[in-house]
Structures are given as structure tokens and as C-alpha cells.
Design a protein that fits this description.
By secondary structure, the protein is an alpha/beta fold. The protein has a single domain, classed as Formyl transferase, N-terminal domain (Rossmann fold, 3-Layer(aba) Sandwich), CATH 3.40.50. Strands 3-2-1-4-5-6-7 form a 7-stranded mixed β-sheet, sandwiched between helices. Strand 8 and strand 9 form a beta hairpin. The longest helix is centred in the C-terminal third of the chain and has 24 residues. The two termini are about 20 Å apart. It binds 5-O-phosphono-beta-D-ribofuranosylamine. 5-O-phosphono-beta-D-ribofuranosylamine (GRF) binds next to helix 1, strand 5 and helix 5.
């Protein structure tokens, strides 16, 4: 199967570090994608600067302007349809969305823990890492998953484990997990671009790479 170039919408609420990472990976040819639009839940998201620098179109759609989840979500997905977006990438996006039928398994999120640990409503930023440290876990990490209508709940595409070290603080653990995220998110998207990802219920299957298959055949 030939690799496609994915058209992405990236949704942000904050610093946009994940957005910046995706922009970098695309620019060095590690991710076969283009960002068609950045949608922010707030005009004050610092990460909007990265979209501006790259002349990526920006939309601001704020939750408080809509009475229901569905009314809020619809214009977001309409922008994505209008821009012919293939996949919607949540990158530090802090709002729940109602996913319309036509975007089922086309919305991805990254969460800074090994789901189902330390996730769900209220688990964001350093709270995730503080809870992991309080629990005394020896391994944490990050999870890329498809998004459904519950926080951090949809089918898991890939996970990367990160050791918790003696003396870790929420900040130091966050830094190392973010380094893993910078690899995991583009890797998951690249698997999709290569046509290797299929979803069966809540199980995501990753087929072997064509390159590897050729090596074995040879
Ligand atoms: C990351 O920790 C990611 O796991 C979570 O949001 C954080 C990135 O936010 N979803 P940002 O890109 O710095 O705004």
C-alpha cells in the first residue's frame, strides 16, 4: 500500500508544544502530513504563534459560546470538512467533543500516562504526573488513542513506557514523558499514513510494514 499525505486539523488549548513538534516532524520529512488548520478553544492559546509563523489557517471556537456539547462540536467538525481534513489531532486540547459519525476513528489524542492509569476527567498537565508519583508507580509513559465521547477512553493506537526515577518531580517526569510523546504522536500518524492501522471494536491492529515484509520475502 502506498503512503498517503494526511491532511490534519490540530486542536490546541495551550502552549502548543505538540503542534510545534508535528510542524517540525513534517518539515524534516518524518511525517507524511500537512496541517490544513489549527483550531483553538481560546484566543489566548500561546501555541497559536506556531500556526501564525507557518501561515497555517487559524480558527477560534470557544465552548462558552454554545449551550450544548453537540452545538459546540459541530462548527469544529464543519471546519474540518470544509478543509478536507483526514484526521483531527488533539494536541493539548482541553475540551470534550461530540464526535460526529463521519469522524468516527478519525480523531486522535495523546495523553501523558499509560491509559487506563491516571486518565479521565481532571487528569491533565502535571496533575497526571503528581498522581503517578503519589501512587509510587515505577513506569509511566504516554498513549496515543482514537477519541470517543469520554475523556481518554477510545481505542489505543500505541503507547511508550518511561521509567519513573528516584527523585522525580512532576516536572522532571513530565519532561521525559513529553520527549516520548514527541516520538509517539508522529509515529502513530505515520502508521495511519502508511495504511497500517485498522480498528476492530476497541482493538487497534497494526499491520507489518511493507518494507519489512519485502525483507522477509527476499
Ligand atoms: C501533553 O502533555 C499531552 O500529553 C497533552 O497535552 C500536553 C501538550 O500540550 N495532551 P501542549 O502542546 O504543550 O499545549
Amino acid at each position: 500500500m502506498s503512503k498517503r499525505k494526511l491532511r490534519l486539523a490540530v486542536l490546541i488549548s495551550g502552549t502548543g508544544r505538540s503542534l510545534k513538534n508535528l510542524i517540525n516532524r513534517i518539515s524534516i520529512g518524518e511525517l507524511s502530513a500537512e496541517i490544513a488548520v489549527v483550531i483553538s478553544s481560546t484566543p489566548s492559546a500561546v501555541g497559536l504563534q506556531y500556526a501564525e509563523e507557518e501561515s497555517i489557517p487559524i480558527e477560534i471556537i470557544e465552548r462558552h459560546n454554545y449551550t450544548t456539547l453537540r452545538a459546540f462540536s459541530e462548527p469544529i467538525f464543519q471546519v474540518c470538512r470544509d478543509k478536507y481534513v483526514d484526521y483531527v489531532v488533539l494536541a493539548g486540547y482541553l475540551k470534550l467533543l461530540a464526535i460526529p459519525q463521519d469522524f468516527n476513528n478519525r480523531v486522535l489524542n495523546i495523553h501523558p500516562s499509560l491509559i487506563p492509569a491516571f486518565c479521565g476527567k481532571g487528569y491533565y498537565g502535571n496533575i497526571v504526573h503528581s498522581k503517578a508519583l503519589e501512587m509510587g508507580v515505577k513506569i509511566s509513559g504516554c498513549t496515543v488513542h482514537f477519541v470517543d465521547e469520554h475523556y481518554d477512553n477510545g481505542p489505543i493506537i500505541l503507547q511508550k513506557a518511561v521509567d519513573v526515577l528516584e527523585g522525580d518531580t512532576a516536572n522532571t517526569l513530565n519532561d521525559r514523558i513529553f520527549d516520548a510523546e514527541c516520538i509517539a504522536y508522529p509515529e502513530a500518524l505515520e502508521l495511519i499514513a502508511e495504511g497500517r492501522v485498522t480498528v476492530q471494536g476497541r482493538i487497534v491492529k497494526i499491520s507489518p510494514s511493507q518494507n519489512r515484509k519485502n525483507e522477509i520475502d527476499f
